[in-house]
Amino acid sequence: MSETNSAAETAAPHRYTAAMAADIEARWQDFWDAEGTYEAPNPTGDLAGDPELAAKPKKFIMDMFPYPSGAGLHVGHPLGYIATDVYARHQRMSGHNVLHTLGFDAFGLPAEQYAVQTGTHPRVSTEANMVNMKAQLRRLGLGHDNRRSFATIEAEYYKWTQWIFLQIFNSWYDTEAGRARPIAELVEQFESGTRATPDGRDWSALSATERADLLSEYRLAYASDAPVNWSPGLGTVLANEEVTADGRSERGNFPVFKAKLRQWNMRITSYADRLLSDLDGLDWPEAIKLQQRNWIGRSEGARVEFPVDTAGGIIVFTTRQDTLFGATYMVLAPEHDMVERIIPAAWPEGTHPVWTGGHASPAEAVTAYRKQAAAKSDVERQAEAKDKTGVFTGAYATNPVSGEKVPVFIADYVLMGYGTGAIMAVPAHDARDFAFARAFELPMRCVVQPSDDRGTDPSTWDDAFGSYDAKLVNSANDEISLDGLGVVEAKARITDWLKEHGVGEGTVNFRLRDWLFSRQRYWGEPFPIVYDEDGIAHPLPESMLPLELPEVEDYSPRTFDPEDATAQPETPLSRNADWVNVTLDLGDGAGPRKYRRETNTMPNWAGSCWYELRYLDPNNDRQLVDPAIEQYWMGPREGQPTGGVDLYVGGAEHAVLHLLYARFWSKVLHDLGHISSAEPFHKLYNQGMIQAFVYRDSRGIAVPAAEVEERDGAFYYEGEKVSRVLGKMGKSLKNAVTPDEICAEYGADTLRLYEMAMGPLDVSRPWDTRAVVGQYRLLQRLWRNVVDEETGEITVVDTEPGEDTLRALHKAIDGVGQDMAGMRFNTAIAKVTELNNHLTKAGGPLSRSVAERLVLLIAPLAPHIAEELWRRLGHTESVVHQDFPVADPAYVVDETVTCVVQIKGKVRARLEISPAITDEELEALALADAAVVAALGGAGIRKVIVRAPKLVNIVPA
Hints:
Blueprint: H1 3-11, H2 18-35, H3 51-54, E1 58-63, H4 79-93, E2 97-100, H5 109-118, H6 122-139, H7 155-169, E3 171-174, E4 179-182, H8 183-192, H9 208-216, E5 221-231, E6 236-238, E7 257-266, H10 272-277, H11 286-296, E8 298-307, E9 313-318, E10 329-332, H12 338-342, H13 353-356, H14 362-374, H15 378-382, E11 391-398, E12 405-410, E13 422-425, H16 431-440, H17 487-500, E14 504-510, E15 515-516, E16 529-531, E17 537-539, H18 577-580, E18 581-584, E19 593-597, H19 611-616, H20 627-634, E20 647-650, H21 657-671, E21 684-686, E22 690-696, E23 702-703, E24 709-711, E25 714-717, E26 720-727, H22 739-746, H23 748-757, E27 765-766, H24 772-786, H25 803-821, H26 825-842, H27 848-858, H28 863-872, H29 889-892, E28 897-903, E29 906-913, H30 919-928, H31 930-936, E30 941-947, E31 951-956
Parallel strand pairs: 1-2, 1-20, 10-12, 20-21, 22-27, 28-31
Antiparallel strand pairs: 3-4, 5-6, 5-7, 7-15, 8-9, 8-14, 10-13, 11-12, 16-17, 16-19, 18-19, 22-23, 22-26, 24-25, 25-26, 28-29, 30-31
């Protein structure tokens, strides 16, 4: 703050200053904590026995889980937290029982990285970060129910994360019932013979390993050899979002390879249809719904089997089964399981030299190409502009409709992550297949009649022809002909033929893949799973939960030569032999046995998949959540058919993964009867981002934004000209402004007001420290309208306000209330400012009734100054739970409006009239007006068009 401002503030001993704001804010924060002001009561059984609570509507408001970073907060971080706090405060004042709290998503990679670098236990650094972050958030005056706060690293919390994992492990998806059921019910079906085993043997005839393997095919949580992103240089598997577009690790820039490792998975694909259809009932931004729909990627088509003489058949999924007669070769993803089973010992006679890649045998060619493909990211492999590469496997499959032998290749443009990891290539009608066929001199057959003049010989084409608005050609065998049919009819007919002949069927496919649920790291939830001597996975009984993380000396996974794609992970937990190898009695009748613990940990998503439920009942050590409490806060109700949190606010960057995973867990828990809500979050709101200018020198290195000078439209740092672009705010960009700095200079209420006034909440906006003072001055004027700056005494009077003030007041009440409910906080502040300016200009002391309602209007936005003024106005109860003002409709409606009277399109008069005037009354007034009479000059009137109350248009005869 400038010296001039400081001098002006000290001139009046009771002026609202930064020092006074700091005192007021600290005092009321202590009071709110001591009094439990923001504690939301839970129902204690049937609501009918709690009439006071039953009379109040509830509102459950949530922010997305913050991660306690060591860097602390910058002013961009609290944007959403302040917004939900303002909304929650308004809802409390509108008569709601509001649950608003905040915890910490505290497992994850940053703390583990710090532990590796410094040797500090991740818990120590994480808890220190939480202390700092809690202090920063408290200073903002956020009205959280602190009794309900927790961190995911607390054993009392992750006990239930492990418990939920076991519920998922011990369940399967019954497609006939359309829901999850306990795995014990599936076992009963196998035991009774109502469900046959794959080979027809009795359940009792299967070995323990065979039973375990069979159940694993059904379990919603299962271990399998899964293709993963393996980074030897980091010694861990990475999620897709941790891999850069050029196939390297985001951290460390190491090569990332595709490898198959034993991993835990969640069978989220079983819920694909429900995850898709239930989006329709959610109050989410359409852009987020679209991203989820695209991620789930539902497509209708057919599964088709291409027989291979030596190894059964290759199954493909296609949405263009009508083009089957045009399939002239096949491509498998390099990682496909069928590859090893189909490759012959030697190249078949007459193999085209281009197909072999110069290798002596199919095995050699496949091995070399797989290594090449493993070094590429999925993005690189799918790039349209890249040259098509691949190699012949040496095997041929049979096209089931034409009977032709077609060569089988592997190529990196086919991914295991979509369909079956195998395609039938129809090069005449698919751009990627066309390019591949040209590169490998493969045949092409036109089976869809081109609509242009290119003809039907693909060898003369420049690119593929793909269209749904065309007729089929060259598509017939002895039993079926598609020639002359449109695409839709042809698809239906060939699908029926495939099913009749046992070589395919119509089906629905999803882009969504099962959720990879393992990490080779230390700082995560341990799996409550042990393995017996036969390698069979056993769940720990609930009595053994939580399974806590052991102490280890080295927090880092073992790293390898970054180029060694064949290396295998060694996790930090695996080095603690005393923890890994245990003798346990699992209570299954087998007595004490030797077991080996799972040494992977759960991913950082696990704890945030269900945290909304823990907020409801955070101290329950007997069950996940009390059913009555969950039903009260999250159960289905009118307008919310699947239940869920009433308002969930956070960034759009979590559009897919976190939200999809949380929805999946909710649906499983709902199916198993643990919760009444089938969706976790009914209403989702994405706040924008607070941006800041980034200044870079000639080397492209960011320089401290606070030290940059502007001269004649250019920017200079230490005399050198620098560039300026608008971007993110962050410590590394040297443009971060901390909330502590702004609170120290202006107070937390000013910071709250400024962040809410910067623009619509859902759009990004640039930070400008110089503009903060505008909201500071608003609070000073507000203070001055109620408190004498010289004496500190209240200046209000017990007299009724004038007509103009009443109209200004009630219009503000009406507008601010609507804006608060609609989360339009910037316009709400504008209306409060307008009212406060009106009162300032009116002069003289404020009426007490006006002053009190002004304080109540601003209370959700600036709670500290509102609480202080409310008490100074003589009230003994907190402003937090006062009723929000209600506008008198008589004062909201404008007293008069201006009506324009036109003759032949020209304005001839303006009438000040009541907005409630009727068309007939307005017409009579207009025709009687002296200016109108003069303008008509005695002419007759052919027509009068009235649009009350704003327009009368007179058409002379």
